[in-house]
Amino acid sequence: MSLTIALFEHYKIIKKSIPLLLNLHEGFLVVLSSDNLNDFKQSYKSLHHPPDIILVEIHQQHNHSIELVYWLHNLCPNSKIIAIGEDAKYIQIFDILTAGSSAYFGLDIDDLLFCNAIESVYNNNFKNNQENFIDSESFFKLKHFNGCSVFKMTVRQRDVFEYLTGYLTNSEIADTLKITESAINFYVDYFGERFSVVGRRELKTVSTKLGYSK
User: Fold this and answer.
1) For a disulfide at 57, which of 9, 139, 151, 157, Cβ 3.0-4.6 Å?
2) CB count, 10 Å around CB of 47?
């Protein structure tokens, strides 16, 4: 029995090449391929069974990618979602996994490894420490990515962190966010402890590695 695959992406080359690749390998059947939400939703309704795997290309606007994964996860709760792409920022991958993706695959891997990894995700035994393969279980277990400890931030923490790793002074950040400067100093110490660094300059280094910007 073949694993059924749905593909959501907007690059025509990938849209053509991945179905061709998977259909050439025994054990896979691409049942849906779309590049927009409406078409995907309509095609999904026509399927007799939900796809086993949904491959979703995440190189769109950052927030759009997260919303897309949330949307797919809610629409297809019984399907495993695998994010695919190249050179994704670390924080983007973290958010994609948090949103409901089971794994992230870089597209610079060979065909056989790509197919084997899909099977591993489906069978819930995906374990690989290579940077182009990241799954949510090992990611959250390790809490460590590219030399930086990673943790899930609240919206407020994210806002403060992005400003702290920018160019505004503590006083200017406080004015912008309508909080006290002592609260900003607290956040500097808090993030420093979480990331095992000292001061805003070292936080900026962490920010660069994780892909934050303001």
Assistant:
1) 9
2) 13
Please determine, for residue 146, whether its predicted confidence score (pLDDT) is greater than 70. no
Say whether both 15 and 112 belong to one domain.
yes
CB under 8 A, 24+ apart: contacts of 191-195: 191/161, 191/164, 194/149, 194/151, 195/148, 195/149
Residue 14 corresponds to which amino acid? I
For position 104, which CATH number holds? 3.40.50.2300
Residues 83 and 165 in one domain: no
The structure's pTM equals 0.65
Q: Position of tokens 């400067």?
A: 181
35/97 same-domain check: yes
- Name the domain count of the chain: 2
Q: Return d(Cα 82, Cα 118) in angstroms, integer.
A: 8
* pLDDT, tens digit (0-9, with 9 covering 90-100), for 101-134: 888 887 666 677 778 888 888 887 655 444 445 5
CB atoms within 10 A of CB 170: 17
Query: What are the tens digits of pLDDT across the range 43-87?
Result: 888 998 999 999 988 765 444 677 788 888 888 888 999 888 776
Helix%, strand%, coil% for the chain, nearest 5: 50, 15, 30
Q: Which residues contact 190 (CB under 8 A, 6 or more apart)?
A: none
Residues 189 and 205 in one domain: yes
Burial class (CB in 10 A: 0-12, 13-18, 19+), 176: exposed
Tokens read off for 190: 């808090």
